[in-house]
Each structure stands twice: as C-alpha cells, then as structure tokens.
Model the fold of this input.
Amino acid sequence: MRKNIAVIRGDGIGPEIVDQALLVLNRVAELYGHEFAYTDVDMGGCAIDKYGDPLPQHELDKCCAADSVLLGAVGGPKWNDVPGSMRPEKGLLRLRAGMGVYSNNRPAKIWPQLADASPLKKSIVDKGIDFIIVRELIGGIYFGKHETFEENGEKVSVDELRYSEEEIRRIGRIGFETAQKRGKKLCSVEKSNVLDSSRLWKKVMHELAAEYPDVELSDMLVDNCAMQIVKDPSQFDVIVTENMFGDILSDEASMITGSIGMIPSSSLGATGCGLYEPIHGSAPDIAGQDIANPIGTILSAAMMLRFSFSMAEEADCIENAVSAVLTAGYRTGDILPADGNATKVGCREMGRLIIENLTKG
Ligand code: NAD
Done:
C-alpha cells in the first residue's frame, strides 16, 4: 500500500523524535511491502522564523492533501514574546481546524515494565491499564456562548453547553469504530441525571448501538467514571465523551500511566486523514541533546497505521517491538527507575533498538 504522510518536525525535541518515528515506519514498510512517502511541513516556531507565520496556508494545504499527518511538537522560549496571533501554538489550532478533526483520541496504557511509575497501588496496576478516551474536540461548553453581565448588583456568568444530534452522532461513530478495532467495549460517559445535553448524548449513543452489534455499549455518569478510572481502570476499553468531560478525564487517565514521554494521541475528523502526535510538548530544556524519549512519537505512528491506514498487524509489530525493548531493560532518562536498575540509552539508540526488534508476526 502507498501512503503520503505529511511530517511536521516542529521545534525543540520535535525533529529528533520524529526522525526516529520515520526510521521505524521505513522498516515497517520494508517488512510489509508498503511505500510511505513523506512531505515536510513547516509549522510552529520554525515556520515563524522562515515565513513570519506559524502555519502559512501553503503548509496547511500540504497537510490536507496528505493521507495523514505526523507531528513532533511546536513552541519554545524563543517565540514566547511574539504577539498572541503569531504564537507557535496558533499553528496547531489552525491545523486542527483546517483538517476538521473533531475527535481527540488518547490511549491510557500502562506498560507492565513501567508499572512502578504509576501513582496507583500495585494491586490495581497489576490488573492492567489499556484503554482509549475518545473526546469530542470542537463542540460543547468550550465552543458555546460565553457571557458575563450584571444582575441585581452582582456579576453573573453563563457558559452555554450545546450539542446537536449530528455532532454527537459523528463522535459516537468514532467511539464505536475505535472499539471495533480494539476490545469491542464502549463506555459512553455523560451526566444524564442532570443535563439535557447528556440525555441527548445518551439517546444518540443508543440509537447508534444498533449499527454496531459487535460492540457492547455501556453508560456511566462522569463523576462515577472519574472514580472508576482510579479504582479499577482495567474495566475500560474505549470511553467516548463530550469535550469538557474528556478534557478532564484524559488528563486523569494519562497521570495513572506514568511518563509523559510514552503517550501518543490521534485527532480524527470526517475523512480517514488524522493528526498523530505525542501528548508532550517540545521540551526545550532537553532539545538537541539526544536524550528525549521518542516512544510517544513512535507509538503515534503506530496509531496512524492502525486507525488511518487499517494496518493493525503493522501497528502491533511496532507496539510489540517497544514492549520487547522495555522488557530488555532499556530506558531513556525520563523513564529510568529510581533504583537505576536499567540500561540508560539516548533518543537515537532507543529508536535503533525498537527497529532491531521489529519482526513480522
Ligand atoms: P513539555 O511537555 O515540553 O515538557 C515538560 C517536561 O517533560 C520537561 O521537563 C521535558 O523535558 C519533559 N519531557 C517532555 N517530553 C519528553 C520526552 N519525549 N522525553 C523526555 N522528557 C520529556 O511541556 P512544557 O515544558 O510545558 O512546554 C514546552 C513547550 O512546548 C512550550 O512552548 C509549550 O507551549 C509547547 N507545547 C507544545 C505542544 C504541542 O506541540 N502539541 C504541547 C504542549 C506544550
């Protein structure tokens, strides 16, 4: 299969970690007979330096024309003082809007080899943590009307939480389709005991369930879900929820898994073209030193294969290689255990070890 991937290296550690992910993709292409073509895209601080704009239209066009986009990270102290509309992060917002990605998908997965890094009790971690939160990204209370006015001599603020059936249906489909590609269990999270928007959410999810008979749908109130994520995260496969609930729950979920350098993410819209990136930033404090952890970016590339290119076996191949390298005791500095009982490696060496462990199943 031939796929065109737009590649945004960005700033800080972005170029180092993306280069390792591309080397992994190249080896996967060799093993499975695919062809991945890469188009370089400038975004963030490097685009400000080059074009005076964090994401010029011609660079956004390259992303929209690609089969998917792989991003390292953008930003850094060099651009802290540029005007708000010109900041590197504006490029990211413009990219998400330009690509129309309305679904953010963040896995919470604990690698058994890194279980000590979780703040949860060992007895809970030992049951396994491996789920994805599918969060609606461009609707709900963050995008409703916001107003503050005077009433009876005091200030009053109102934030509107609005969802249409279609907005719920399209994110619901991503939830069901994600579950189909994993353990076939979908938990819809809302607050239907209080909110009208949640009652509509629940109704639409149950209507959709008829179209996905292979997926088992359950409902959970958001307050209970926040408790269950720390009490027994092993019960979850895929969680689908609205924007604000997903914002809060996905941060909670990433905390219980340990290091920020390990976690990938995807953002998807109406087309298969997705945006794949690690959840961390450009880590300017360690940039250019060959010590960054490339695994979050490498796993983002694996998500791209699984969710945008339907290459499940190839994605498994990458995840298995990461697991093998961790089992063999290799660690970048950020995931080094406190007792130092591991082999410390840099960014390039971690990439090389993962490539060495890629084997066709
Ligand atoms: P950060 O995630 O870049 O770094 C936080 C800490 O985690 C730092 O100590 C860093 O060294 C460490 N870290 C992060 N990724 C790592 C990795 N792969 N391996 C090893 N250690 C890693 O967050 P920050 O310091 O708040 O932000 C730095 C810059 O990144 C800012 O300009 C911010 O705006 C930007 N940012 C960009 C994105 C993005 O591009 N999506 C996201 C968040 C922050």
About this structure: The chain has two domains: 1-105+261-361, 119-256.
